[in-house]
Amino acid sequence: TYTPKLILLDISDINCIQDVANEILNCYGCVDILINNASMKVKGAVQSISLELDKKIMNANYFGPVTLTKALLPNMISRKTGQVVLINSIQGKIGVPFRAAYAASKHAALGFFDCLRAEMEEFGICVSTVSPTFICSYHRQPAPGNWEALIWK
């Protein structure tokens, strides 16, 4: 058994993900199971959500899990074992009004991990996606003019 190690990661900051993956691999040597479970969402009409916020949601829900998975995948492939899990959302399969950025990011993630599943079969790596229905998320009350507070994490 290994002593647990806390490593902080902002999954929406894709520039730091490779360093975090390296830190994990240097500490433990491998990752047997990667569970991508971080997510951000925002509720609002398409025309009221800025492109900047759309990008932040896409970074957290699509590029973050993809970048982390790609950083750890070579180690799994070389060992010919491992499991990658994406905790996604039913909104990755159906769109819901006032959740366009969130649904788009979840659609993209589902498509990527479905393709990855087919590619990883020959290496003995299992890729799973879980799409729960609506869940209760942590939400901060927004201060006036603070669009970041509209984000659910």
Automatic annotation (TrEMBL):
InterPro entries, per the entry: NAD(P)-bd_dom_sf, Sc_DH/Rdtase_CS, SDR_fam, SDR_family_member_7C
Keyword Protein biosynthesis appears in the UniProt entry: no
PROSITE patterns: ADH_SHORT
Signal peptide per UniProt: none
GO function terms (MF aspect): oxidoreductase activity, acting on the CH-OH group of donors, NAD or NADP as acceptor
One of the GO BP terms on file: intracellular calcium ion homeostasis
Keywords: NAD, NADP, Oxidoreductase, Signal
Highest taxon of the lineage: Eukaryota
Family to which the UniProt record says this protein belongs: Belongs to the short-chain dehydrogenases/reductases (SDR) family.
Protein name (database record): Dehydrogenase/reductase SDR family member 7C
Gene: Dhrs7c
